[in-house]
UniProtKB/TrEMBL annotation:
The keyword Lipid biosynthesis does not apply. It comes from Hypericibacter adhaerens. It holds the Pfam family TsaD. This is tRNA (Adenosine(37)-N6)-threonylcarbamoyltransferase complex dimerization subunit type 1 TsaB. GO terms for molecular function: transferase activity. Keywords: Transferase. InterPro entries: ATPase_NBD, Gcp-like_dom, T6A_TsaB. One of its GO terms (biological process) is tRNA threonylcarbamoyladenosine modification. GO terms for cellular component: cytosol. PANTHER family: TRNA N6-ADENOSINE THREONYLCARBAMOYLTRANSFERASE, TRNA THREONYLCARBAMOYLADENOSINE BIOSYNTHESIS PROTEIN TSAB.
Length: 264
């Protein structure tokens, strides 16, 4: 496979100050039938997918708690080889912007932005919430409101509600499992995300609450089709907009900048 070689950021590097609020909207020129590379390293997995001619043609995914920086770009190369494409064939790159692991987000965003810069292609962001929601089968979503729960590795959860068409309902928020359940309206729900094991013990048994199968990790193969559709619609659409490739932390990250280094 020909194409640029992009160095992965060191695991200890600080590259983004990042907003606590959601990044701004991205409005790229519409790309009909895009050839798209999607990647994620925001949580306890690392994944890459390639979309071309309206179909997923190659993907890789590995569960991991560390080492995203060492694996992400080799996985990109492996996936592009499996797709039989040169990097220059890509029309755009899509990446999760968070919330998620501070280090993992920086690694994924740095890789996506580096590839976009080297190739002269747009880089589009999606929230981790939308990435999980997009992977849910339509039959599961039908007539249910969706609650995405992401593990913060603390005592609370990152949370976001969606309707069955993947339109966000309100803003994302932080809450303990008990607080999250207490606020749920008495309607049919579908709950998904890697925070589901923390939420499951407190879900009311007398309510119509379905639980998505699987570990709930984000996989690029699950959101690449939605990203391609939004790119074809100029970044808008029912589940849009696409976002600028900037980190979405939802709360201030627990990291300390090296002495003398100011946050960007």
């Amino acid at each position: 496979m020909s194409g640029p070689e992009i160095a992965a950021p060191a695991e200890g590097a600080v590259e983004f100050g990042g907003p606590i609020g959601r990044p701004g909207a991205l409005h790229p020129a519409a790309i009909a039938n895009p050839t798209l590379l999607a990647l994620d390293s925001s949580g306890a997995a690392c994944s890459v997918a390639v979309w071309r001619d309206g179909a997923l043609i190659a993907h890789r995914a590995e569960t991991m708690t560390r080492g995203h920086g060492e694996r992400l770009l080799p996985m990109v190369a492996e996936t592009m080889r499996a797709a039989g494409l040169a990097m220059a064939a890509l029309d755009a790159v899509a990446v999760t912007v968070g919330p998620g692991s501070f280090t993992g987000l920086r690694i994924g965003l740095a890789a996506a932005r580096g590839l976009g810069l080297a190739l002269g292609r747009p880089v589009a962001g999606l929230t981790s919430f939308l990435a999980v929601a997009a992977s849910l089968p339509t039959a599961l979503r039908d007539a249910r409101e969706i609650l995405i729960a992401l593990d913060t590795r603390r005592e609370d959860l990152f949370l976001q509600r969606f309707d069955p068409q993947l339109r966000a309902i309100g803003s994302a928020w932080l809450a303990t499992p008990a607080e999250a359940v207490a606020d749920l309206p008495a309607i049919p729900w579908l709950v998904a995300g890697d925070g589901l094991p923390l939420l499951a013990p407190v879900l009311p048994r007398d309510r119509d609450i379905a639980r998505a199968p699987g570990p709930g990790h984000i996989e690029a193969a699950g959101f690449v089709a939605l990203a391609a559709r939004l790119l074809a619609e100029g970044g808008e659409g029912a589940a849009g907009p696409l976002l600028l490739p900037e980190p979405f932390y939802l709360r201030a990250p627990d990291v300390k900048l090296p002495a003398g280094l100011a946050a960007p």
